[in-house]
C-alpha cells in the first residue's frame, strides 16, 4: 500500500482503496488526518509571514500554545509549572527529564518498569523493558527495572488486587531497604498505561501507591504521557484516572496535533537548568506550537476525552465479542481509545505465571488480514503478539462498528 491521500480516520492509497487508520501515527494525530482546525492553524502561521522557527525567542504562537496547555493540567502542577520545549521526538523529552532530575537531586540511579517503552535514544533505551533493541548499544547502566502490574501475566503469580498490593510493597522496599542494592534514585519514570508494551493500564490503586511512596521518600515521579496523554484514555491525562499529580509530565505525539512537538512539564522546585544544559535545534518550531494549540483547544472544547471513553467502551464490546470462545485471543484490555488484544497459543504449555505463551505469528496473520479488509492496526507487547488500536479521537460510532466488524472478519480468516 502506498498512501496518497487521507481525511479523518481514512487513508486512501494510490489505487483508490480506503483504509480505516487505527494506528494514527502511533496516536500522534488526535483529530485525524488533515483536520480543518489543524490545517487552518498551520496556514495561519504561513499566511501571516510569521517566523516558523525561533529557538528560544518567544512568539505569539508560543504564548498561545502555553495558554492552551497549562489550563489542562491539574491545579497543583499548573500553579508551579515550568515548561521545557524539547527536540520534536518524545524520546528527547524523556532524556531531558532524566538529566533535569539527576541535576536537581544530585543522584544518578533511575527506576523504570518491566515492559516499558520510552523511546529509542540511548538514555531512553536504558529504560526499556525489552533488551533486544538495545543489544550492542552502549546505554547507561544506572537503571533498575521493577515489575509492572500485568493482570494476564502477573509477575508475582498472585493476580488481582493482592498482586497490585504486593508489587507496591516490593517497590516501597526497594526504596526503603538499605540493602536493596539501589542508591537514592534521581527519579522514577512510569507510563500510566504502557503503550508499546501492549496497551497495559497501570491499576489506579497501584499508581496511587507509587505516588505516595515516591512523595514520602522524596523521589521525583515522572509520568510518560507521550502516547496516552491529551484525551486518549478518557481523561485529558491518563494519570488522572488514579487522581494523582506527578512531579513531571512528558508530552509529545498528540500534543502537537500531528506536527512534531515535544515538551517536558515539571514542578518549578526542580528547575536547575542552566543555559545550554539541554537544547535542540527544533525546540522553537512554530508550526508545531500552532498545530498543538489548535489540537488542545479542539480536544477541550469538544470533550474528546469523554468521546474517547464512549467510543473506547463501544470498541471494547466489539473486541470482547470477537474474543469470546476464541482462546487464541486471551486478553482484551486498555483504556479509552488505547486498546489491545493479546494473541496466544492455547495449545502450548502455560508459562510460570499461568498464562499461555504469546503467538506473534498468529498476531501478524491477524494484522495482515485486517489490512486486507481495509483496517490498519499496530502490534506491540510481548513478542509483538498484542494487536493494538489507537484510532483518532474523532472516530464516530459507525466507524467504530466498522472497525469491530473488520477485526472480527480478520480473526475468523486468520484462524481458518
UniProtKB/TrEMBL annotation:
Q: So which domain of life are we looking at?
A: Archaea
One MF term in the entry's GO annotations: transaminase activity
Q: Which UniProt keywords apply?
A: Aminotransferase, Isomerase, Pyridoxal phosphate, Transferase
Q: Which family does it belong to?
A: Belongs to the class-III pyridoxal-phosphate-dependent aminotransferase family.
Q: Which cofactor does it need?
A: pyridoxal 5'-phosphate
PANTHER family named among the record's database cross-references: DIAMINOBUTYRATE--2-OXOGLUTARATE AMINOTRANSFERASE
Isomerase in keyword set? yes
What EC numbers are recorded for this enzyme? 5.4.3.8
Which SUPFAM superfamilies does this one have? PLP-dependent transferases
- CDD domains reported in the protein's UniProt record: OAT_like
**Name this protein carries in UniProt:** Glutamate-1-semialdehyde 2,1-aminomutase
Spell out the PROSITE patterns in the cross-references: AA_TRANSFER_CLASS_3
Keyword field contains S-adenosyl-L-methionine: no
Question: What's the short name of a Pfam family annotated to this entry?
Answer: Aminotran_3
Q: Which InterPro entries did the record assign?
A: Aminotrans_3, Aminotrans_3_PPA_site, Dat, PyrdxlP-dep_Trfase, PyrdxlP-dep_Trfase_major, PyrdxlP-dep_Trfase_small
